[in-house]
Fold:
Amino acid sequence: MNFLFITADQWRGDCLSALQHPCVQTPTLDALAAEGVLFARHYCQAVPCGPSRASLHTGLYLLNHRSAINGTPLDRRHANWAQLLRGAGYDPVLFGYTDTSVDPRDYPSDDPALTSFEGLLPGLKPQVLLNEGDLAAWAAWLQARGCPVPERLYDLFLTKARQPEWEAGGPVPTPLALKAEHHDSRFLTDQAIDYINQASGSTDPGWCVHLSLLRPHPPWIAPAPYNALYPPDALPDFLRAPTPAEEAVHPWLNYQMQQRGSRVPTDDRTLRRLKACYYGLMKEVDDNLGRLMRALESLGEKDRTFIIFTSDHGEQMGDHWLLGKCGYFDQSYHVPLIIRDPAAAADTRGTRVEAFTEHVDIMPTLLDRAGIETPAACDGRSLLPWLESTRRPSGWRDAAHWEFDFRDPADPAVERALGLPLDACNLTVIRDEKFKYVHFAGLPSLLFDLTADPEERIDRSRDPGMQSVRLAYAEKMLAWRARHADSTLSRLKLTDQGPIRRTDDGQIRRGF
Structure:
């Protein structure tokens, strides 16, 4: 069996036409969902990119892998899906990036790998690299096609066509100067198609591709025609309080709303234009994935390929007066997940799962389909039971959980602003059908009644009538953390008969 693991970057979970989004059209992903399973309540475990992908690739909650922010090293002791598939005979290759901050203990102090958080996940072979700090392969591809390449390669993302911007009177958002057929999404998809074409039918046990696309990550400047697909003045309104002051119900939120990268433009027309381009970049990704799916079909590989599509995290896009990914709001953590399983046992094609699923479930799912035992340390569970039956698996979680670490070891600004020590700059969330509880390590907690207040505007944590609810959710969070303490060796016992271990399904076995 082949494996195709696709990630987009910064794609909100509600932005699929299969989920009745009022604007965004995603026919390719809708078709993939019709042939597979759409997980409608899927959540990442952390933001931004680095910590989220650490959970995605290792199956560990942030409380265990501890790669807290972009730039925090991922401990080399944590196994990931690529290493384990490689050990089983696969050759996992990468198109794009993984944002894995390397363990500095494995490198000399002057190694360039220690100067960037955009490192490579161990176990993956870089077939074509593309990240914000390494655009060389894309630039060479452009030059081979006669396209002018700027001295500063990042300007490929920024240089616009010469026409008025929408908020300055232009008819549509100004497009990127670069054509869509030369854009980064097209480039990476082309490279993946070329590789699959060569690998098709020639590898045993099968090929394994991780396609990690940058879009719809900013800069939000879409090439034509994607810049003009969604009129900015016809987009859904922003979900937010009437004013920033009314939104800032918590010291952390008040601080975050003022930070560069999170602060929204003062002009709502500019914000609407950014949102239109954000949606346009999604449609561009969907169109390129359509080319990839057609290539798989023409090669006869689609029905031999296990396909996953998801995103590392979401995007606030003006909701709650924020941009980017941060904090505790669903907009930053709810992401799409679609899985298409060609196995004969996959009897639930075209269904939608409404139970809570999480990024930590991806690694055990990949391993399960490959017939590889999931490491004891893994915090997630395989999703294969959802692909094979509509019955809810026994003991499945009834809530989603995530963490956000807002420390910066290189800059104590947030510690000074909020009066916190470094290790108290974090929060943890438990979110179920009815409530969301947010626990800060050094600041007041938050409680939202999602039935009465689905937009999370009213903090109920200090209401006298809600104290029993607050306590119950604090206890649930404590129990969750206790259940998911590192279990790498804790399920083993050394006996006079040698090591004995307890497996995930409760069996007692010899060896480790």
